[in-house]
Fold this protein.
Amino acid sequence: MKAVLILDMPSCCNNCPCFDGMEDRSDCKYLEKNIEDILIIDKDCPLKPLPPRREYADESKVYKAGWNDCLDAIVGGKQ
């Protein structure tokens, strides 16, 4: 079973709620490892940004409306 937690995507590990920075060590609580560069998102980070909303650029408006409706349902309203 999987779950989704909606939070603002951090700009780097240092701004992440899963980050536990101490004086001599910088750990990610989720990955359970030392983060070398806390000013970027670690390559193993499980947080992934939501895909962008789609614009109606062609005749497949129904598909794109469904895509955007799904995104709206995930975040609880328009992004």
